[in-house]
Amino acid sequence: MSEKKDSFLVNRLKSVGWAFKGALILLRTEASIKIQFAIAILVTIAGFYFEISPTEWLFQVAMIGLVMSIEGLNTAIEFIADFIHPERHDKIGRIKDVAAGAVFIAAISAVIVAVIIYYPKLF
């Protein structure tokens, strides 16, 4: 006998639930994402304070999403690497370094966008 499959809508709702669970795990357990989340709150407050334009909001929100998403992927890569090869290994270290480098590139890009948005408003 075959089991009844869930509907498309039920499957999508379950997927959203798992994604939300993953985001909460990140926020509860990862120091770097906590810092990035705090920065995201601060620049969001700054955006309201300085009344940034809709275009500036688009860039700001995109950069927050980019940095936090890549940090999540970096964390997942670290978990997988540690699971596969728990002891120190040069190739695993290189994989982790490259993933961390991706976060660094996104973070530098976000800082550049923030400077472009806020420098004229501050000076």
TrEMBL record:
Q: Name the cofactor(s).
A: Mg(2+)
What residues does a divalent metal cation bind to? 30, 78
- Give the annotated active site: 71
Instruction: Please name the InterPro entries in this protein's record.
Output: DAGK, DAGK_sf, UDPK
In its UniProt record, a GO molecular function of this protein is: metal ion binding
Question: Which residues are substrate-binding?
Answer: 71
- Give the transmembrane region(s): 35-52, 58-77, 98-119
Entry's Gene Ontology BP terms = phospholipid biosynthetic process
Q: Where does ATP bind?
A: 30, 78, 87-89, 96-97
Q: Which CDD domains match?
A: UDPK_IM_like
What are the entry keywords? Answer: ATP-binding, Cell membrane, Kinase, Lipid biosynthesis, Lipid metabolism, Magnesium, Membrane, Metal-binding, Nucleotide-binding, Phospholipid biosynthesis, Phospholipid metabolism, Transferase, Transmembrane, Transmembrane helix
Q: Which Gene3D superfamilies match?
A: 1.10.287.3610
Q: Where in the cell is it found?
A: Cell membrane
Q: Which GO terms describe its cellular component?
A: plasma membrane
The membrane topology of this protein is: Multi-pass membrane protein
Q: How is the cofactor bound?
A: Mn(2+), Zn(2+), Cd(2+) and Co(2+) support activity to lesser extents.
Tell me its family.
Belongs to the bacterial diacylglycerol kinase family.
Name the record gives this protein: Diacylglycerol kinase family protein
